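Researcher: I'd like a structural prediction for the single chain below. Treat it as a standalone chain; there are no partners to consider.
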Amino acid sequence: MDSELTPAVAAAEEESRPDQLRRVALASAVGTTIEWYDYFIYSTAAALIFGSQFFSTLTPASATLASFATLGVGFLARPVGGILWGHFGDRIGRKAMLISSLLLMGVATVGVGLLPTYSQIGVAAPILLVVLRLLQGLSAGGEWGGAALMAVEHAPAGQRGRYGAYSQIGVPAGLILAQLVFVVIGAAISDEQFASWGWRLPFLFSIVLVGVGLFIRLRIEESPVFRALKTEQVRARLPMIDVLRKRPRELVVASVSFIANTAIGYVFLAYLLSYGTSVLKVSRTTMLVVVIIGSVSWLVSIMVSANWSDRVGRKPVYLVGSVLLVVWPVPFFLLIDTRSTALMVLAVIVLTIGLGASYGPQSALFAEMFEPRFRYSGASFSYAVGAVLGGGFAPLVATALQTSTGTSLSVSAYMVLTALISLAAVIAIRETRRVPA
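Model: Treating it as a single chain, here is the predicted structure.
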């Protein structure tokens, strides 16, 4: 990548003090954990309860499909959120956009928890559910880019992968938190109480988490790279247009490289719950525990792979993860179909190692692909487009494939296809580890 940095911008990564580094790392990890907790309790509820609450006039199978369709709708808003937050993130700063994304996600999530059901207000209920899901999508589209850039742009030289991973662990950490909340609530109340009102509690609990996240994020300093851009007056006037003109190849490669990770990730975190409970008839608690264990494995593999990428480069680590995502989907479902808890845990651990290796270095990689003056726009849009193409309707596609074919191997074939597409993009990636900040 050709560098357009002034000396002040190029040196900016050295400005962060150790205490500020720790604070930014905490803000990235905690903030994204809260954001993704909000996002994932929706995914979990879509798998477990939304069909009966908002699509009760449909058959159970059709209600599950409709529920997963609302999950996918949120992804359609993510590129819009990426463009919107990216524009202002490149124009007025990373920090302000991080705060606004957290607030919007909180409002939308609490709104879902307060939403009347179909039996109470009729067709308005699923319509309002879709609206709130769209707001979640807008927030998620802008959240990741800001959190990733704050961490990477504060990082010392040679440690961008390590610090960038703090924004990445928010995904599995948020998933763990979401699943634990559902496990605790499910253990504390009856199934009838859960269906009646208990499912709302995880959404309402978001009020507390958002307050914690705002407290942490308000205490961090603006990215030193952005401060230097502002001082040197080299901010882009229309950053997304500049990305399209100057870095179209990077935009395409980055977007496509993320398709498999997000598609297979959502098969794991959303579809697996529905498949295990409704098709395999495994208890909800068992499936939630399996997903939690897999999420812990995912979190660890993110940290390990991100640190590894600082030593060997982003591309080699990405290749390891991408190849594993190609070869593991068939064994994954063969093990899941045994209904053995131990074998299901093995299946998700190996899968999440592949997910972690193709996700851990992503913050650093995507940041390094784009110049600082339009970095927020380029990174956010790539992430959001990859999420739409991959994860947006993955649970819906998986449900439809299994229902129509009667076998989980059709879902495995879908996972392999997405993995091969992303592998081709990863092969085309140019190594970025040594580019200037």
